[in-house]
Write a structure and sequence with these properties.
alpha+beta, five-stranded antiparallel beta sheet, disordered N terminus
């Protein structure tokens, strides 16, 4: 799964209180996301925070199935979401995880299903809102695309046979990383037989 490429998820994010988040709190959460979107500039983060919608899902909610249109990304504020490919490889995402962003950026259908394993609070961001921010703040879009590319390149270049484990994410199956492959949705990810 693409999230395997990112080393941490919101290790310095603000505490979450029980009520709805105000604009300043949404800004703080998005400022600490792992893509480097803000990187010291508050304007693009504030624009995205204004467009973000706070959402809540009870445990057991299917966020999407494999093959569904990628019409939103969910930035997990609290709770756990389990993402699983059809072949059984899965990852649990927790606080600070941006779930579904790569498919949104690429305008591709989901290639994994996502289900809430606990009650989840998050920020829903629509691709059109991301692209509106990128139009007004192209440097922020370039930084985000660069961070994604560097993370995926780092994942792809790891030695074959090493399992990938992230702080804040737990694997349901071992996902070794090997040389680029044309057979999967993400070059460089392969499964151990």
């Amino acid at each position: 799964l693409p999230a395997l490429a990112f080393p941490t998820f919101c290790s310095s994010a603000p505490a979450l209180h029980p009520g709805p988040l105000g604009l300043s709190e949404r800004i703080l959460w998005l400022y600490h996301e792992p893509f480097g979107f803000g990187a010291g500039q508050i304007q693009p983060v504030a624009a995205l925070a204004r467009a973000a919608e706070e959402v809540s899902f009870p445990a057991g909610t299917k966020l999407w199935e494999a093959g569904a249109a990628a019409d939103e990304l969910i930035f997990v504020l609290s709770g756990k979401v389990h993402a699983r490919r059809a072949d059984g490889v899965g990852v649990d995402f927790g606080n600070g995880a941006p779930l579904g962003g790569l498919e949104c950026l690429a305008d591709l259908p989901r290639w994994y299903g996502a289900t809430c394993t606990t009650d989840v609070r998050g920020l829903r961001i629509r691709p059109r809102d991301m692209f509106d921010v990128f139009e007004d703040h192209t440097d922020a879009g370039v930084r985000m695309v660069r961070a994604v590319a560097l993370a995926l390149d780092g994942l792809r270049s790891r030695q074959h046979g090493l399992g990938v484990m992230l702080p804040g994410a737990t694997l349901s199956a071992t996902v070794p990383v090997g040389p680029p492959s044309r057979s999967g949705p993400l070059p460089g990810l392969s499964e151990r037989p």
